[in-house]
TrEMBL record:
Protein's name according to its UniProt entry: Aldehyde oxidase/xanthine dehydrogenase a/b hammerhead domain-containing protein
Gene3D superfamilies: Aldehyde oxidase/xanthine dehydrogenase, a/b hammerhead, Aldehyde oxidase/xanthine dehydrogenase, molybdopterin binding domain
PROSITE patterns attached to this UniProt entry: TAT
Native source organism of the sequence: Skermanella stibiiresistens SB22
Superkingdom of this protein's organism: Bacteria
Length: 744
């Protein structure tokens, strides 16, 4: 079934803000779990105490508990967002405890994400930033008002220091614990606006390199609770045998042998497979192996062949008779290209890739009557409530979601299938929780892969090599048509996530981006940087092709095209200095790429070598300059760039999913090739923030420039060999070398 959300955008006034007093009771976020979700600076829940709003609780001992609304999946958001509240309320960070938000979109939904609880799109900090700073400022105002009553002085005579309110004139002070124990909540609650926020020169925490992530200690000492770690009293285990081809159903099930396995309690026919419930993981695994299932043969996905389909997509992109949906239009690009002195006409392609998160898909569910409780590493508590409710025919308000830590998400854990598994089996074993963990083979074979896509780009140049028009056609299936059909239909059939990144900030007089949707039957989904990961690959390589056609330096061309973009120019100039761009290297090449995706400006230079006998590429070093606007956590930003560059290197060189006759050929890390530690490049990162600029997204910003930087380095090293197909497999590199040497 399609995932649907009702878009609800919460407006945040720039003139004033008041945190609602409703819903102040903070639920225990981890249900029956006996251990905190993360380490010493977090707690599983907060009860009692002084509650100025739905986000903050202050205990009598001065401990401040702050709700973290987004999901922690390794991107550090459980530190970043509460830090904004702590900064504005002048909390003592050493006395802050952090709680994962309960499933309550009305209170904790992301204002920038349709008001739902969903972590993705590098949207968490951008969406919550203003709300949480204002929340912290209002909390500070509440504390000041309460302290004024206790000290019998005007509020105007008071100020705050970390963890306390001070009255400089008399030398008296009240710590936040004392106010929590004895101070009344003021009526009405004070309103705050942007003028009440701290100026940057008074920040104690934002932008400082001394802040450490709160989730790391428990991950080091082993006390962190991921979804796969959940243990509940009376818990059963579940597994699901899925059809080898998406869309098929079990026509006949012979479970005779499976039922003989000791510990097996239920065999559950499902519309998409067969579920097994047992007392142990081993029992369910063995029973799954012994099932004999006759599958239907009517799914259209049986005709899906990714290799042949990609060539078909390429042909569609080149066919002027095939019209799509305009995604961005400036000027008349087609006319400009027709009148050009030179036309660059190229295709770029990308294979399917798998999420392959280190923690495979899993969820635990308990069904009692029309009520459901779920413990899961989900990116979307709001969606999880809807998915679960659909299974048993109840309403989302009767579904409680306990969000655990995620061992990687990349968009995959916003999906419904693993939630449906757990709830379906828990329904069959009503009254006992059932935990379903996918095998690695299931995780890869039944993933929601990044779209297979082909891009056709035409660029018209005048006699001096200046760009007249740029036409960009993107051919791929849709993610939103399946996951958010109302949004997809409301945009006239345009899929923002598939074409994301194609609208660039280069100074081009005529620019046309077009989306040609395909409907090939295979479910595809969100993946790390999704569209930007391949649109910027094509764009940045084409910019280098233009530079070669003009006979100019690729860096100089970018600076020319970004003449009105000071932040973009700054990161390019910075990374060029870092890499010593003009210095010649023996047997190595440098490649440059730039991206402004997710509101952050990122430039990278990759240093590579090439074995011309085998076609193998080695990435030795990547330099990166990143401008996120306001750098809330500089150390964390550096770490996220390293993550993106490492993943981007593996994605560019190795990662590929092949689907033949509807079946996925890869099944584990022996066949789905990811980057090894020995293959990771040395990485150097410079964070170059622009104070006063909007906050940019960081989670995915590091990946898009990496692949094109590698491709451009190969072109520079080889005198012009272009790699236009992700990933750069050795056989593809050799073919490109042969094709180049065969040219006159």
């Amino acid at each position: 079934m399609a995932t649907t959300f009702q878009p609800r955008i919460r407006a945040l006034s720039r003139r004033g803000f008041l945190v609602t007093a409703g819903g102040l009771g903070i639920a225990v976020a981890y249900g029956s779990l006996s251990q905190p979700a993360v380490g010493a600076t977090t707690v599983p829940g907060a009860e009692g105490g002084f509650r100025p709003n739905a986000w903050v609780t202050i205990a009598d001992d001065g401990t401040v508990t702050i709700i973290s609304p987004a999901v922690e999946m390794g991107q550090g958001i459980m530190t970043t967002l509460p830090l904004l509240v702590a900064e504005e309320m002048d909390a003592d960070w050493d006395r802050v405890r952090i709680v994962q938000a309960p499933s309550d979109a009305k209170t904790y939904g992301n204002p920038g994400f349709y008001g739902i609880q969903l972590t993705g799109g590098s949207e968490s900090t951008r969406g919550y930033h203003a709300l949480l700073r204002l929340t912290g400022a209002q909390t500070r105002m509440v504390l000041l008002a309460a302290a004024a009553g206790m000290l019998r002085v005007p509020v105007s005579e008071l100020s705050t220091e970390p963890g306390r309110v001070v009255h400089p004139a008399s030398g008296r002070a009240l710590d936040y614990g004392g106010i929590a124990a004895n101070g009344p909540l003021p009526e009405p609650l004070p309103q705050v606006g942007e003028a009440d926020l701290k100026p940057s020169d008074r920040w104690r925490y934002i932008g400082k390199r001394t802040i450490r992530r709160v989730d790391v200690p428990s991950k080091v000492d082993g006390t962190a609770v991921f979804g796969i770690d959940v243990q509940l009293p009376g818990m059963l285990h579940g597994a699901v045998l899925r059809a080898p081809v998406q869309g098929e159903r079990p026509d006949a099930i012979d479970d005779t042998k499976a039922r003989t396995v000791p510990g097996v309690t239920h065999i559950v026919p499902l519309s998409y497979g067969v579920g097994i419930i047992g007392e142990t993981v081993e029992a369910t695994k063995r029973a799954k192996e012994l099932l004999d299932v006759e599958w239907s043969t009517g799914s259209r996905v049986r005709d899906y062949d990714s290799r042949h389909l990609l060539e078909a997509y390429r042909a569609i992109g080149r066919d002027p008779g095939r019209r799509g949906v305009p995604a961005h239009v400036t000027g008349d690009a087609q006319a400009a290209i027709l009148g050009a002195a030179t036309v660059i006409d190229v295709d770029y392609m990308s294979d399917h890739v798998s999420h392959a998160a280190m923690e495979p898909m899993n969820a635990t569910a308990l069904v009692i009557g029309d009520r459901i409780e779920i413990w899961a590493p989900t990116q979307g508590p709001t969606g999880t409530q809807r998915f679960a409710a659909e299974v048993i025919g109840t309403t989302p308000d009767k579904v409680k979601v306990n969000t655990t830590l995620l061992g990687g998400g990349f968009g995959r854990k916003a999906e419904k299938d693993f939630i449906v598994d757990a709830v379906s089996l828990a329904k069959a074993a009503e009254g006992r929780p059932v935990k379903v963990v996918w095998s690695r083979e299931d995780d890869i074979r039944h993933d929601k892969f990044r779209p297979l896509e082909a891009q056709h780009i035409q660029v018209g140049l005048d006699a001096d090599g200046r760009i007249l028009g740029w036409r960009h056609r993107i051919v791929a299936d849709s993610v939103f048509a399946r996951t958010m059909p109302e949004l997809f239909d409301g945009k006239g059939g345009h899929d923002d996530v598939v074409t994301e990144g194609a609208h660039f900030n280069y100074a081009v007089p005529a620019h046309h981006v077009e989306y040609l949707r395909q409907e090939s039957g295979l479910d595809i989904g969100f993946w790390f940087a999704v569209g930007v990961g391949y649109t910027r690959f094509a764009i940045e390589c084409v910019v280098d092709e233009i530079a070669a056609a003009r006979g100019v330096d690729p860096m100089a061309l970018r600076l020319e095209l970004l003449r009105d973009q000071p932040r973009a120019r700054a990161v390019i100039e910075t990374v060029a200095r870092m890499a010593d761009w003009d210095r010649e290297r023996e047997d190595r090449g440098l490649g440059l790429a730039y991206s402004d995706a997710f509101g952050s400006h990122c430039a990278q230079v990759a240093e590579v070598s090439l074995d011309r006998e085998t076609g193998r590429i080695r990435v030795h070093k990547v330099w990166c300059a990143i401008d996120p606007g306001v750098a809330i956590q500089p150390l964390h930003i550096e770490a996220m760039m390293i993550v993106g560059i490492t993943n981007g290197t593996g994605h560019a060189l190795f990662e590929r999913i092949n689907v033949v006759d509807g079946e996925v050929e890869e099944s584990n890390f022996d066949t789905y090739r990811v980057i090894r530690m020995s293959e990771a490049p040395e990485i150097e990162v410079a964070v170059v923030p622009t104070p006063g600029s909007p906050v940019g997204g960081i989670g995915q910003a590091g990946l898009p420039p990496t692949g094109p930087a590698i491709a451009n380095a190969i072109a520079r090293l080889t005198g012009g060999v272009r790699l236009r197909h992700f990933p750069f497999l050795p056989e593809r590199v050799l073919a490109a070398l042969d094709g180049w040497t065969a040219q006159p």
